[in-house]
Amino acid sequence: MTVLSVIGTRPEAIKMAPVLAELARVPHRARSIVCVTSQHREMLDQVLRVFAIRPDRDLDVMVSDQSLAQLTAALFARLDPVVAEAAPDWVLAQGDTTTVMVTALVAFYRRIRFGHVEAGLRTGDLGQPFPEEMNRRVADGVASLLFAPTEANRRALVKEGLDSARIIVTGNTVIDALLTIASRPYEWSSGPLASVPAGRRLVVVTAHRRESFGAPLAEICRALRDIARAFAAEGLHVVYPVHLMIEPLDYVSMVHLMKRATLILTDSGGIQEEAPSLRVPVLVLREVTERPEAAAVGAIRVVGTAYARIMAEVRSVLENPGAWTVTGPNPYGDGHAAERVVAALLSDAAR
């Protein structure tokens, strides 16, 4: 059995790394080919190094300031011949980026079975997140196997009329990756986190979503400024890893930074999944989330991007230490999702 895995961005690489590692454990049963589109270049390369992933093909589609239409066209043109040449039994991709949507359609056009890792996430709003909500609906619609992280994701797929026999609840592979990295030793005195002071409360921030650009991001930044001022006397340290403020963090550093955090503010989907395992509360800087399981167990709160709401929620957490504690198992998995994904592929091949 030949499996072609297509990866475009840093989150995809993180979440596919455990699947690739599991495929590598059974070389006598599965030939694994890795193609990166490099939809994100620098951040993707960091993760490939961390997990020792060596791509067989690199499409190198990243161009500064290209539109979604230009990116989509480039992906179709460069990926199709790779799939044709590899002639795999399965094509795999994870998530909801433009790379994933195009990969699913190329496999469909070539009549090759497509497996969607992290299937069934929905907000119900095509504009949030944009264009990811549309991308994942397309990928799920043509998938031969749908690897749903949770039971709620499975129900969402069934509700849309997809065949329940094609859906396998696996957990989310990001938990496999997180537990591996979090268990590694980390040297704080060197590297990108050397300037982060020890012994202080940390608020870690990530905000990058397309729908937050403009006024919403301005509201977020105004709130961060005033949070830093309001709690400066108490030694609070706000860490926002973006260009010109702190060097972009590699995945290992980011995981260990989150482990030390008092609170995380984010619009990232992956962090919503990871933080429950680290027992760190998360305020989600979005109007809706496709990860309600974390909210249901009290690990996240969706607060939007309005200045007043962000300030009120952050003050509530910081002024009442211990009032919000994250306990219980992570609803997104136990660290064995990749094993379930590969077992399903091997089981299908054995039929």
CATH superfamily placement of the largest domain? Glycogen Phosphorylase B
What proportion of the residues is helical, as a percent range? 40-55%
Radius of gyration: 20 Å
Low-confidence stretches: none
The total beta strand count reads: 12
Strand order of the largest sheet: 3-2-1-4-5-6-7
Strand content: 5-15%
Structural class from helices and strands?
alpha/beta
3D shape: globular
CATH topology of the largest domain: Rossmann fold
Instruction: Summarize the main sheet.
Output: 7 strands, parallel
Provide the domain count: 2
Can you tell me the CATH class of the largest domain?
Alpha Beta
Please provide a written account of the structure.
The protein is built from 13 helices and twelve strands. With 351 residues, the protein is of the alpha/beta class. Helix 6 (151-159) links the parallel strand 6 and strand 7. It folds into two domains: 2-171 and 335-350, Rossmann fold (3-Layer(aba) Sandwich), CATH 3.40.50.2000; 202-318, Rossmann fold (3-Layer(aba) Sandwich). The longest helix has 19 residues, at 68-86. It is globular and about 65 Å long. The model has no long low-confidence stretch (mean pLDDT 93).
List the helices and strands and how they pair.
Layout: E1 2-7, H1 10-24, E2 31-36, H2 42-50, E3 57-58, H3 68-86, E4 90-94, H4 98-109, E5 113-117, H5 132-142, E6 145-148, H6 151-159, E7 167-169, H7 173-182, E8 202-206, H8 215-230, E9 237-239, H9 251-260, E10 263-266, H10 269-278, E11 282-284, H11 292-296, E12 300-302, H12 307-318, H13 337-350
Helix pairs in contact: 1-2, 1-7, 1-13, 3-4, 4-5, 7-10, 8-12
